[in-house]
Amino acid sequence: MTVIVREIRPQARADLEGFAAVRHAALPFHLITADSLAYDLAHFSPDARYRPLLAEEDGEIIGSAQVGLIHDSPDPGQGFVNVYVRPDRTGRGAGSLLVGAAEEHLAAHGATRLLSWVLDGPGNRSFAERHGYRASRSAHFLRLDLANGTLPPLQDPPPGVELRTGADFADDPRAMFALDAETTSDEPSDAGAELTDYEAWLAETWRHPLNDLALTVVAVVDGRPAAFTAARTDGARHYGSGMTGTARAHRGRGLGKLVKNHSLHRARAAGYAQAFTGNDTGNAPMLAINKWFGYEVCATEVRHVRELG
């Protein structure tokens, strides 16, 4: 049996579905579809040098890697390498081949520091360490049973606050971009991110096929978005929180809870059965909010870092 690594073919449906299937098997808490992957390939910024890779064993897709530069970070030279192998196909060398090909690609485009999310388990962490990656921050995946769980009751917004959906900003989402940029800059991260390119944000985030504007809920104060929760859905049974954030001037008022609760109620009414989200393990306020909703930790990832010589 022979394992090879190659680039994904954007026009090959079997490649797109194979990549998504590997991710579903290895990381079922992360929303991805063949269509969303095709969209990413068509709309990622050229500066990202985005290059998804596949590992094949005798023609069967058994592994995948997301590979690219973190082009929106204020610190240049950073890249990402996220490798996943089907749990029933580990131990065949696919992971090492994917890492090697990814590092070669990123080094050729000037990357000097590589970041990789690794599921928290002895085998995965040992694999990362053998390849020269050291553990850094960690993050939880959380799951909520929308179909059978009990959500907190809906509450009316406080005086001066109006609730809208993302669809209400479809014609002119620039105010949503400004709020997303402010809250993203405050997110805990090894790399840091600055949203400065409105057109790129429109293409990569706002118009993304997983972005569900009808289930995205926004708290508006004095005509401007003050808090939001971005909903992502696979169009079937799974709902994910892309981002929940509140403008600095309006924090401490419970607006994050308010918008997320309304979004979850809308998602359940629309027939979504499972809700997923993720939080940095050091983000105590957001973890507390999600615990209040009934989310439970279902997995943990550890960010690993490698400095290229």
Note down, in words, how this protein is organized.
There is one protein chain. This protein is of the alpha+beta class and 309 residues long. It folds into 2 domains: 3-111, 3-Layer(aba) Sandwich (Aminopeptidase), CATH 3.40.630; 144-300, 3-Layer(aba) Sandwich (Aminopeptidase), CATH 3.40.630.30. Helices cover 30% and strands 31% of the residues. The protein is built from 8 helices and 12 strands. It has a 12-stranded mixed β-sheet, with helices on both faces. The longest helix has 15 residues, at 94-108. The protein starts with a strand and ends with a strand. The mean pLDDT is 94.
Low-confidence stretches: none
Helix and strand content put the structural class at alpha+beta
| Total count of strands | 12
Strand adjacency order, main sheet: 1-2-3-4-5-12-6-11-10-9-8-7
Helices and strands, in order, run as: EHHEEEHEHEEHHEEEHEHE
- How many helices? The count is 8
